[in-house]
Design brief:
Helix 1 crosses helix 10. The longest helix has 19 residues. It is built from eleven helices and ten strands. 47% of the residues are buried. The model has no long low-confidence stretch (mean pLDDT 95). A six-stranded parallel β-sheet has the order 4-3-1-2-9-10, with helices on both faces. A four-stranded parallel β-sheet has the order 6-5-7-8, sandwiched between helices.
Length: 262
């Protein structure tokens, strides 16, 4: 089974990126892979992230022979993108924290970054800050709890529950005086509207979605396929009843065919 495009994340974080791609290329199918066997990537060491990313990519290439892989995971991108490009002969597009965008938007030069612990502590993030936001004050927050809540169904919860879940983060950034907030874990994009609502009017929320998809369209322009071609979703690891239920629901929300284990 060949597919030109594969979107790879540790879980459901990359689905907003897949949706944006599908909206711009509605007649082009893709594969979405969630590496649940190694979720959460954000709590792993850098070497572990690199090893797991290479392992799942080997499976993806053997199964789908893609022309391009989009790493729709900030943690995997910051830690493992260079290693993936050196290991495999196909192009990779990563999702890295939108620090440059935030620095351009920030009026008071005070930026908040919410991400996984691995991304917060990765040298790559510090390089981004030094390159694009050296004149800015940076407030960071690692929020593994929120990542887990989103992965396990928060995206379909009532709005009030979503607001409660992000309240501690919003409070931290408002009290710190940040005027711009980077959503630097793709899982958080599922709550982008909630973040924007709760952060307003003092904080502007930014992410990497539009830039990543624009770059993807330039690197490998989509081509229309037969109408019966449909995008599909696979996961790694053991599929429990809860995972099956959750991912069937996510596939319905994002117009994917649920295929089960990779």
């Amino acid at each position: 089974m060949g597919k030109k495009y594969v979107f790879l994340d540790s879980g459901i974080g990359g689905l907003p990126y897949f949706r944006s791609f599908h909206q711009q290329a509605p007649h082009t199918s893709a594969v979405y892979v969630a590496d649940l066997e190694h979720f959460p990537y954000g709590e792993k060491t850098r070497d572990e992230v690199i090893r797991y990313a290479i392992t799942v990519t080997e499976k993806i290439i053997a199964r789908f022979h893609p022309e391009l892989i989009v790493i729709v995971c900030n943690t995997m991108s910051t830690a493992a993108l260079d290693a993936l490009r050196k290991t495999f002969p196909i192009p990779f597009i990563g999702t890295v924290p939108a620090v440059k965008v935030a620095a351009e938007c920030s009026v008071r030069k005070h930026i908040g970054i919410i991400a996984t612990a691995r991304t917060i502590h990765d040298p790559y993030l510090e390089k981004l800050i030094q390159s694009f936001a050296a004149d800015c004050k940076i407030e960071k927050r690692a929020d593994a709890k929120l990542v887990a809540q989103i992965e396990n169904g928060l995206i379909t919860a009532p709005d009030e529950e979503k607001r409660r879940a992000i309240a501690p983060a919003i409070r931290q950034f408002k009290e710190a005086g940040a005027d711009t907030l980077v959503l630097a874990c793709t899982h958080f994009l599922h709550l982008a509207e909630t973040f924007a609502e709760c952060a307003a009017p003092t904080i502007k929320v930014v992410d990497s979605l539009s830039g990543v998809i624009s770059h993807l369209m330039e690197v490998l322009p989509p081509v229309a396929e037969p109408e019966d071609s449909r995008s599909c979703c696979y996961v790694t690891g053991t599929i429990t009843e809860d995972i099956d239920r959750l991912y069937r629901g996510y596939c319905t929300l994002f117009d994917l065919e649920w295929k089960g284990a990779l």
